[in-house]
From TrEMBL:
Organism placement in taxonomy: Eukaryota, Viridiplantae, Streptophyta, Embryophyta, Tracheophyta
Pfam family, one: FBPase
Keywords per UniProt: Carbohydrate metabolism, Cytoplasm, Hydrolase, Magnesium, Metal-binding
Start and end residues of each Fructose-1-6-bisphosphatase class I N-terminal domain: 13-201
CDD domains named in the record: FBPase
Gene giving rise to this polypeptide: LOC105159402
Cellular localisation: Cytoplasm
PROSITE patterns tied to this protein: FBPASE
Designated name of the protein: Fructose-1,6-bisphosphatase, cytosolic
EC number: 3.1.3.11
Keyword ATP-binding: no
Domain Fructose-1-6-bisphosphatase class 1 C-terminal: residue ranges: 205-334
Length: 340
């Protein structure tokens, strides 16, 4: 047995240790956020385990119900939703929960209430489960305005008011990416320890990227700025090399790649979905928050994504997010279109 090597393994920066270190920088902190995050991490470990054995456990396939978005629910969707609802309520630190799978927000009973509101997509990209493509959980956290009287307005805030956001990607490895408003850090699950270990400290997106990510099957329905931008990616007129297209169709996987390698992820509005397709609270806001914290930008085609004020919990929005310079280009095209 290699004792020196085993001793080194105990000196790892786990996600719990990382969050406790952050907590120690705020002397007034009571540890509520740390407890909440531990419950989110536990939920992610549970879902990761379920995803890994989904085919064996007959979890793949449809549960027979349709969720509020009109999408047929997978068994894993239903399970993941239940796991996160229970984990968040049992933390005793939440008061309002908004899930992609539930039509109405969940208000936690007064005896188990805390000061945080959590919006989450328990299993994003779930249509890809059957073919083994990366899927994930996305979450965003707000602070309630009045702990004694939580209201739906507590979650209908602009994304810039979030205190934290992140996602967990279940792919070739299980990775948890988190921002508490002071940069972005990535943790990878070590299955032998059952712990998330800090593997990607202080993630910074490259200022300009070589990849664009969009569903080109919708091209005939796009507006002029999006069409021009994608055309420029493929046929640049300034002598620059063409950008590469990479599109998984699972938002967590596409945004994760964009965050690490740079480039741009687009899900524009089109004639078929005039308000865009991605949901503001638990897809657009958390990913935009992470992108800005990593030095990138997020834009809706009209404004900075995090300035958007949602009116409904399942509201949708177009989104362009990624490297700073790439988003500047798409912003310039929309500005030029407005001046016409």
């Amino acid at each position: 047995m290699d004792h020196a090597r085993d001793a080194h393994r105990t000196d790892l920066m786990t996600i719990t240790r990382f969050v406790l270190n952050e907590q120690s920088k705020h002397p007034a902190s009571r540890g509520d956020f740390t407890i909440l995050l531990n419950h989110i991490v536990l939920g992610c470990k549970f879902v990761c385990s379920a995803v890994n054995k989904a085919g064996l456990a007959k979890l793949i396939g449809l549960a027979g119900d349709t969720n509020v978005q009109g999408e047929e629910q997978k068994k894993l969707d239903v399970l993941s939703n239940e796991v996160f609802i229970k984990a968040l309520i049992s933390s005793g630190r939440t008061c309002v929960l908004v899930s992609e799978e539930d039509e109405e927000a969940t208000f936690v009973e007064p005896s188990r209430r805390g000061k945080y509101c959590v919006m989450f997509d328990p299993l994003d990209g779930s249509s890809n489960i059957d073919c083994g493509v990366s899927i994930g959980t996305i979450f965003g956290i707000y602070m309630v305005k009045d702990e004694g009287k939580p209201k739906i307005d507590d979650v209908l805030q602009p994304g810039k008011n979030m205190v934290a956001a992140g996602y967990c990607m279940y792919g070739s490895s299980c990775m948890f990416v988190l921002s508490t408003g002071t940069g972005v850090n990535g943790f990878t699950l070590d299955p032998s320890l059952g712990e998330f270990i800090l593997t990607h400290p202080n993630i910074k997106i490259p200022k300009k990227g070589k990849i664009y990510s969009v569903n080109e099957g919708n091209a005939k329905n796009w507006d002029s700025p999006t069409t021009k931008y994608v055309e420029k990616c493929k046929f640049p007129t300034d002598g620059a090399p063409a950008k590469s297209l990479r599109y998984v169709g699972s938002m967590v996987a596409d945004v994760h790649r964009t965050l690490l390698y740079g480039g741009i992820f687009l899900y524009p509005a089109d004639k078929k979905s005039p308000n865009g397709k991605l949901r503001v609270l638990y897809e657009v806001f958390p990913m935009s928050f992470l992108m800005e914290q990593a030095g990138g930008q997020a834009f809706t085609g009209k404004q900075r994504a995090l300035d958007l004020v949602p009116k409904k919990i399942h509201e949708r929005s177009p989104i362009f997010l990624g490297s700073y310079d790439d988003i500047e280009e798409i912003k310039a095209l929309y500005a030029a279109e407005e001046q016409k």
